[in-house]
Design a protein that fits this description.
This is Restriction of telomere capping protein 4. The protein contains 13 helices and no strands. By secondary structure, it is mainly alpha-helical.
Length: 267
Amino acid sequence: MPVSMPSSISAQAGGSAVLPELHMETGDHDSESALSELDSSTFEDFEDPVCPLCRIPVDRDLLKSFTRGKGRLDFHRRQEFCHLHKKDSAHKIWKDKHYPVIKWESMESRIGQHFGKLERILRGQRSFYGDAFSEKVKAGQNKTVKTMVKANQSLTPGYYGLKGLATMSDSIIRKFSSLLRERAVQDKLIAARGSTAFVQSVLVPELAVELVMEDMGVKQDEARTILQESISVGELVHEEEVQGVQEKLAPGPISRERSKDEVVVQD
């Protein structure tokens, strides 16, 4: 079935331009070619433009700069611009919220200052994220890191992004690899979901809260709020810095004594 597309662009009552509504059926092989019928000039004359894909209001100069000289906006270019404006917005939010410039070269020494607290938690001391993780385990949730990701339960430590997750996880595992193996046998919570899940669900966020408190000069409760609210910003701002992060975060070898879902950190 061909794509039905109005020839003109209407305006909302508030004055914001509305992109043509695209009526497509699943499996329509002509959809992408139909999208290409929208010339880039179509989007440049808006007083209050919106993203041609997600329809969120966008900066007119950013849209004009992106579309200038690129001819028709096919679906792939729409996707490219959608990602571009979200990243641009993330940088603006970062500035407005006064998030810090992260000095990655000094992260190891900063993390090391909090090993004492992390070791106490690892040895059984109760903690905010430990209690939350325990409740999820009791409810039958978070069986593996993979299922947590599928359930949209982000492991990203706020504005530190995926690079921060990789850096913190790597430091913790290198420091406590022997203790993690030892505690995986003794601690039912660690044994229930494996060392990797415990590190990324409990130790990393506990560490990240301490770092945010230092960065922003706030108390624990506010640091936890900042950590949660800044996840998407961190993932976008540090996007270009996360090459290879997925490989670094991949679980290590699995112990023969454990199920396939339970990961034990190996040296």
